[in-house]
């Protein structure tokens, strides 16, 4: 035997084994996590029966007396309650180019928008560490001009920066990506990338200009 019920969000018919009663179930259609009813068939409270077709006695050219159901209404309501977020996976991808400073800052803003203060505090620590790792672009050119041997240090700093990127992803960034996927799936308002990318490209250009100025 199986328990049949409809998703409270998208009204998709779901079937689960009897032993799943009272447990959490994830809708494969919209990703909503909800409780499995104890028994019987459960319809979502927002579901409305599809209106019957107009009678043959009515003039087919008259205005319709009913309006079709809008299935996107529940999803639109959810989007209104969900804070606008940056895609956490896209932030990680851009961090390969701009260093974890870029992704850690956006993830910090996401945690704050989600109201997760504890996770925001942990991400702030990763952001500070990322800034320290990025500071090598300023310190190494200065050290080279002062006559210090930095060839070996430059090679080591590149390897260390790569390892730090992986550490940040597996210890921090991956957790936010999983959190948002389980809670909202893909149904959340997206924040734009124009502002963050413009700032990131500007900082990257200034660091390159700074290094070239010290070499000259």
How many structural domains in the coordinates?
A: 2
The global form is: elongated
Q: Helical region count?
A: 7
Strand content: 5-15%
* Order of strands, widest sheet: 1-2
Q: What is the distance, rounded to the nearest whole angstrom, between the alpha carbons of the first and last residues?
A: 78 Å
Main sheet attributes: strand count, strand direction, barrel closure = 2 strands, antiparallel
Tell me the total number of β-strands: 4
What letter string, H or E per element, gives the SSE order?
A: EEEEHHHHHHH
The overall average pLDDT, rounded, is 78
Rg result:
26 Å
Q: Which class of secondary structure composition applies to the elements?
A: mainly alpha
Uncertain parts: 42-50
The proportion of residues forming helix, as a percent range, comes to 55-70%
